[in-house]
Design brief:
Layout: E1 3-7, E2 10-12, E3 18-25, E4 33-39, E5 46-51, E6 58-60, E7 68-73, E8 78-83, E9 92-99, E10 111-112, E11 116-120
Parallel strand pairs: 2-11
Antiparallel strand pairs: 1-3, 3-8, 4-5, 4-9, 5-6, 7-8, 9-10, 9-11
Length: 122
């Protein structure tokens, strides 16, 4: 059974950076597409980035393009989301998800982590 665990969230000032990690047990992430999603208070969960299996393709929603970078570390069975130039509107619970089909839509993912809180505030 694949289990995903997010880490790396926290409180950061506007303009700061965080790196989120999505670690897995029970399956090799390299064979799966991994998506990052976030849900802000009172809003629906949205897809913000994904990386295809083997890391050949990545995609980002417009609001994070140029600021966030998704990457894999095969040896550590972990996918990262490097977040730079953070804004207050990035405040949300961030989730990683894994599936056999990638993209920014939630329904293509079969496995989800529990989420990590990111708060951007001065």
């Amino acid at each position: 059974q694949l289990q995903l665990v997010e880490s790396g969230g926290g409180l950061v000032q506007p303009g700061g950076s965080l790196r989120l990690s999505c670690s897995a047990s029970g399956f090799t992430l390299d064979y799966l597409a991994i998506g990052w999603f976030r849900q802000a208070p009172g809003k629906e969960r949205e897809g913000i980035s994904y990386i295809s299996s083997r890391g050949g393709n990545t995609n980002y929603t417009d609001s994070v393009k140029g600021r966030f970078t998704i990457s894999r570390d095969t040896a550590k069975n972990t996918v990262y989301l490097q977040m730079n130039t953070l804004k207050p509107e990035d405040t949300a619970v961030y989730y990683c998800a894994a599936g056999f089909w990638g993209g920014l839509a939630q329904h293509v993912y079969d496995f989800w982590g529990q989420g990590t809180q990111v708060t951007v505030s001065s």
